[in-house]
Amino acid sequence: MMRSPRVASGLLGGALAVTLTACSAPAEPEPTPTVSREAASALRCLVDHSPWTLDLATVDEAWRAAIPADRPVLGGEVAGTATMSFASASGWRFRAHGVAFTLSLEDGAQESTTVTTDAAGDYAVSEAGDVLVLDGLDVDETRAATTTTPDGTRTDGVSIPAPEFPWTATDAAELSFTCTEHRLVISTPGVVPSGWSLSPG
Predict the structure, then answer these.
(1) Which segments show compositional bias classed as Low complexity (predicted)?
(2) CA–CA distance from 161 to each of 46, 105, 118, 127 (Å)?
(3) Which residue ranges of the chain lie beneath pLDDT 70?
(4) Which of 103, 129, 165, 183 would disulfide-bridge 42, Cβ 3.0–4.6 Å?
């Protein structure tokens, strides 16, 4: 049985709270008796540059690229916004507003999946600062999938399911990640897409 990585909670106490303030020319974070230098740096990165905006265009491109070649897909598009934020008090939140994945099929039909999500929970990072642990998840999500034929007839459901946000699929998740002031990348091997890119703001 694989051991879960040792983690450091986002609630770091007064000592680390001081390091979560100024972003310009930050000093190297000092380790504490309970938090490694790597974990402290990762936690500060997540908090200082929140909220993070998910690159939905990249998600859409990776999803469509993974559709088997024998499926009759001509193209597609994505709309909406999705953001993730981290608080210094160990809380995180993810919101998706008006997200819609649309596929144009070879027979003239269109498949559309709309997603509205508001998820929140607790978070921590591994001592190595490279694994994000999400727990205590509370998710409010609405998904609607429809197919519209060339004559305008609409039916429920789609033949090609849209991507699911991996951090809202289970009650708890352990996700590899890297964080810099320019980019947060969450890796999900075996899932399409396998990487989720977010930028500050």
Answers:
(1) 144-157
(2) 30, 14, 20, 36
(3) 1-33
(4) 129
